[in-house]
Amino acid sequence: MTLSTASAATNDSPELEALFDSIVSAQQGPSSAPAVESDDSVKDGGELVSRVGHLTRRLYDTLKELGGDDALEQAASAIPDACERLSYIADRTDQAAHRALNAIETARPVQDQVRQGAVDLGARWDQFFQQKLSVDDFRTLVAETRSYLGDVTKHSDIVIAQLNEILMAQDFQDLTGQVIKRVIGTAQDMQTQLLQLLIDFVPEQKRPAMESNSLLNGPVINGQGRSDVVTSQEQVDELLQSLGF
Amino acid sequence: MTKSELKFLVVDDFSTMRRIVRNLLKEVGIANVEEAEDGQIALQKLRAGDFNFVVSDWNMPNMTGIQLLREIRADEKLKHLPVLMVTAEAKKENIVEAAQAGASGYVVKPFTAATLDEKLQKIFQQMQKAGTLS
User: Fold this and answer.
1) Which parts of B2-112 fold into alpha helices (H)?
2) Residues of B with CB below 8 A from A219's CB?
């Protein structure tokens, strides 16, 4: 939202400037020093609005001086593009996963059938070698074995086709890999610009509070050097054990 | 009740993960599996049906896995259900939180078939001790 506001600002700057000025002057008391950093002086909502107003004004002015509004406008226009690319990746990987799962679910019963046939016939051939089969039983066994061999060929063709399907389902990696690289580029550009903004405008004492303390973080992308996360199932088990679970 | 008679509910917002878990369960002889795509739907299904086991993700819309676990433990009829968490959340805080909320096991994604099987067997043993599984 902030970004789109910033980019809109380049279109009608005079109006926006007038708005800033009206907010700031409306909230301005006689002793209103724009002391944005000293944060223990917030007493009521009015003061807060006034300070947000000052802060926004300063941010806006500084961005104009630095040419940052152009940079932000660029960054803002990169976001819809990045979103589109990311949903392309989500779609492709989803399709690929289902394609592979479909193939597996098709091949599995066929392979089970091949296995079961071999187990059954094998047991009867064992009986034959133990001389426990009658001549008629032996004839049936030979005929069924012959037909089983025909089935194995057919069933193997089905399984091979499904294995190929799984192979081909991996073609997303090439496409998504390229898209991911472009999105990483965009993200790095934005990170650099936004980080600079934060360094310039977030007061020193507020910085540690910005760390995430949530329990919804998703997969750990890089666990190296972090003591607050586990990187293997063994560590999960050890932790639970140490807690008496 | 034997293992193959157990009715499972697999809760995950990604259908691929539900399918993977379903296939892995089939591998260990469990075919009676239903699916839910978030904690809310899972809770409705659990209250309506005769489930014996829950495998749940953590991060889901509407109701997360940890909320689902708490609801299950707070429900007189459901509180004895084994709940195995299978999740990408790998902070130590998450694992401690889940254990304290009464999770029966915790598997971090990405996981192997062997890991899932091992945790299932461990819970089956506990169920056998408790007399809910023969």
Assistant:
1) 15-27, 39-48, 65-74, 92-101
2) 88, 90, 109-110
Q: Which ipTM was obtained for this model?
A: 0.72
Q: Which residue of B has its CA nearest to A100?
A: B16
How many beta carbons lie within 10 A of that of residue A226, not counting itself? 13
**Contact residues on chain A for B115, CB-CB shorter than 8 A:** 233
Length of chain B: 134
Cα–Cα distances in angstroms (integers) from residue B13 to residues A5, A74, A151, A169, in the given order: 34, 34, 40, 22
In this structure, are residues A228 and B93 in contact, taking their beta carbons and an 8 Å threshold?
A: yes
Handedness of CA A50, A51, A52, A56 (dihedral sign): positive
State residue A124's pLDDT score: 96
Lowest-pLDDT choice from A67-71, A121-125, A216-220: A67-71
- pLDDT tens by residue, A132-160: 999 999 999 999 999 999 999 999 999 99
Q: Which of A94, A216, A228 is the closest to B92 by Cβ?
A: A228
